[in-house]
Amino acid sequence: MAKMYIVGTYSSAALKGFVTNPAQDRKQIVEAMTASTGIRLEDFQITRGIFDFVAVAEGTIEQAMAIKIAVGSTGSFDQFHILESIDISKAATLAQTTLANYVPPQG
Q1: Element (DSSP H or E) covering residue 15
Q2: How would DSSP label each residue in 26-95?
Q3: pLDDT at position 45
Q4: Which domains does the chain have, with CATH numbers?
């Protein structure tokens, strides 16, 4: 299971829904949706800035993609980005091995 940070922007249709029903609890809806995939939601916030929401969750990339596909198919998002936390030392160690076997283009 990986820690993921999910950020996105709502579509104009979704924003219209907020205006129509401003009291709806989006965090409760997101908790139910993520639980249905097996993702553990740590936090969900509506934000001010270039993204309309941020979620912190723990699960697999396939689970997160299931949410992106399902909710994306409704037209509720303009953007939905999944940022997966990684261990940089493992990536850097693998990069050492890769670099030892790399030959730059030669003219």
Answers
A1: helix 12-20
A2: HHHHHHHHHHHHT-EEEEEEE-SSS-SEEEEEEE-HHHHHHHHHHHHTTT-EEEEEEEE---HHHHHHHH
A3: 97
A4: 2-100 (3.30.70.920)
Q: Give the model's pLDDT for residue 107.
A: 83
The percent of residues in the chain predicted with pLDDT above 90, rounded, is 94
Half-sphere exposure (Cβ direction) of 47: Cα atoms closer than 13 Å? 14
Torsion of CA 61, 67, 69, 75, to 10 degrees: -140
- pTM of the complete model: 0.83
pLDDT in the model for residue 54: 98
C-alpha 36/C-alpha 80 separation (Å) is 19
